[in-house]
Amino acid sequence: MESEKCLEALLTRRSIRRFKPDDVPLDLVLKAVDVARFAPSARNGQPWELVVVRDKERREKLSKIHPWARYAAEAPVAIVVLSDTRRAPDSYMIDGSLVAMYLWLALHCLGLGAVWLHTVPVADTVRRIIGAPDHLFPVALFAVGYPDERPAARPRREVRDIVHLESFGSKLE
Description:
The chain is α+β, with helices and mostly antiparallel strands. The chain has one domain: NADH Oxidase (3-Layer(aba) Sandwich), CATH 3.40.109. The chain has helices spanning 3-12, 26-36, 56-63, 71-74, 92-109, 123-130, 159-162, and strands at residues 48-53, 77-84, 113-117, 136-145. α2 packs across α5 (92-109).
């Protein structure tokens, strides 16, 4: 693996909120899902399920779960990442977040854009819209499509401001 290309992919991922109207081929979405399934999980439990939503009516319903979810209707695809609370009672949120991040990075590498739409406080509503059982927790909802924007990187804290050596409070000089 060429390390610079890998790092570039990580550094150029952005939250995309404007999408071209072009349809996204299902096989491209499934390619990203195929990569995402290699995300790490506690005890390799792989407690995730993913629901790909292309139906406009269902995406409209997902777009109304909260004001910032409108992008689910504006993108040609939405993906709900679910994590099984029975298979991973202690780690479902972390495991689900890891597979969601792998999915997001894979979508980016395939030329697609996405934005992570918060689902935690509206989990029951999301489950109802997609028909998921209660033991599957919707960790994330992604609006997915071809990007119609190129957002600049947002400011980040400096390494020296976030790293402590050996113990908290021992900052880098």
